[in-house]
Amino acid sequence: MLKATALVKRYGPCVTAVDGVSLEIPQGQMVGVIGRSGAGKSTLLRLINRLIDPTEGQVHFDGVDVTRLKGRRLREWRAACAMIFQQFNLVGRLDVLTNVLVGRVGHRATVPTLVKQFSRSERALAAQALERLDLADQGLQRAETLSGGQQQRVAIARALVQQPRLILADEPIASLDPGNAKRVMDALRAINREDGLTVLCNLHHISTARDTCDRIIGMQDGRVVFDGPPETLTSPIIRDLFGTEARDGDGPAWNHPPASAVA
């Protein structure tokens, strides 16, 4: 169980990015977090992963107070709580396999990782992750030669070799075309279902959130203003979250049925 209690993040006296967020997310749930840019979605994920520290409140995972972790235990938490970013964060000049193996850094010393000294079992783990993401044939290619969708799937494979207990994905499809976006979301959904991993994913497109997530959380001005199953996310709620100017393609497709309904 992932639990956030009265979580607050302030930047100076005037900016409150996350404002009193309390959530409980059971193990194995796939959750979509939606809202306008600046709603606090990315800050919330970074607070959970402890990339940034809260101003107030706590994050607990299976009874452990994550906000109090330091040193080795904090590094272990960040390995257990894998992050996937919009920008992929790959090293373009390195081959795909090595980029995936970088995900093992939380489990080993940094120096051997920098000189690419990985064990046979670690290489097998990385190869298995690439196979699962349909990228086995690209293992020896430089990462910069891949398409955006392929690079994001490499980033997912890197997260998998961390052997995480949950995955946080921060706008993982924002820079992808619809076809690649679907492949990335299908991959995350498959991992969620097959491995029982909790997945918390920031999204802009309502149709994607409806199709792939068990639960949707809506944020506005740093607060949670909606929390429920996809079918309860009505057009009036979405208009309140995003405004009437939202359009399919660059924001929430609130005036269209989910793809699963018309397939």
Question: Care to describe what's here?
Answer:
- Helix 5 packs across helix 6 (148-161) and helix 6 packs parallel to helix 7.
- Helices cover 36% and strands 23% of the residues.
- The protein has a 6-stranded mixed beta sheet, sandwiched between helices. A 4-stranded antiparallel beta sheet has the order 2-1-4-5, with helices on one face.
- The protein has helices at 41-49, 71-80, 96-101, 110-114, 120-132, 148-161, 178-195, 206-212, 235-242, 259-262; strands spanning 2-11, 15-25, 30-34, 56-61, 64-65, 81-85, 166-170, 198-202, 215-220, 223-228.
- It is built from 10 helices and 10 strands.
- The model is unreliable at 247-263 (pLDDT under 50).
- The chain has one domain (2-262): Rossmann fold.
- The chain starts with a strand and ends with a helix.
- Strand 1 and strand 2 form a beta hairpin.
- By secondary structure, the chain is an alpha/beta fold.
- The chain is globular.
- GO terms for molecular function: ABC-type phosphonate transporter activity; ATP binding; ATP hydrolysis activity.
- Residues 2-246 form the ABC transporter domain.
- Residues 244-263 are annotated as: Disordered.
